[in-house]
Amino acid sequence: MTGLVLEGGAFRGLFTAGVLDALLDIKAEIKYVIGVSAGATNAYSYISKQKGRNLEIMERFINHKRYVGYGNLIKSKAIMDLDFVFDEIPNKYCIFDYKTFSNYDGKMLVGALNIETGESEYFDKDELDDKNSILRATCAIPMLFPFAKIKNSYYADGGLLDAIPIKKSIEDGNDKNIIVLTRNEGYRKKQSKANKFTYKFYKNKYPKLANVLKNRYIQYNKQLDYCKELEENKKAIIIRPTIKMDIGRFERNKNKLKAIYQNGYDLVIRDKDKILYYLK
Question: Closest Cα partner for 149 from 115, 172, 175?
Answer without folding.
Answer: 115
